[in-house]
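Blinded run. Sample ID left blank on purpose so nobody reads anything into the name before looking at the predicted structure. Input follows.
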Amino acid sequence: MMKMKLWVLLLVLSSVLCVSADALHGDNQINGCSDTDGEAVMIFDDEAVWYADFNKQEEIYPLPPFVDPIISPGQYEQAVADQQVCRQNLKVTRQAMKDVPKELDPPSSLIIYTVLNVELGVPNILICHVTGFYPAPVNVTWTKNEQVTEGTSTSVPFPNKDGSFKQTSRLNFIPKQGDVYSCTVEHVALTQPMTKFYAVENSDLILGPAMFCGVGLTVGVLGVAAGIFLLIRATK
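Blinded prediction complete.
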């Protein structure tokens, strides 16, 4: 069941495109609004291919540069016009649902991971992924060694199939031995924030080869010594 809250109205347009007998692709366009916020996003196979940033007053194509963007002239202007319609519909819906209890679902999952394999001193990206919450959005805060850090970006909320939402936040960082990062998520349905930690531990890459070489040399020396001892004992 698609969830609704009094202050937000989502108008969803979905279509399924069949490109072959064996492959189905999902194409979704979501428009949403509140009294102070708005959202317009196009999703293809669970990937956002376009969205409107109403704060910066521009359209964003978040896929990598090698992917051909789906460009439609006047798409951002149409999204702005749709926001006015959405807010009018919101007023009508709010009045019709004024006695319906508000539904609040806290995040069901929060994970933190790196985009690339960790190498000390090599730029990398930390990903904080939160899902299963309703309503949107969540507030994400990053820290480095218990200090709030910059260089972060957070996606717009994307809908899950069950009507809840998911969001992803990114932090650009350079791994340094001993650094500890945290991602803290706040949501209206949480009694206290959720936090996940990531500690930079790369000792295996630094000490691994030397340690294995040392162990091999030690075993070799002990083997030779044991052989000499047994040989001398046998000759006696």
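Unblinding after everyone has recorded impressions. The first helix runs from residue 75 to 96.
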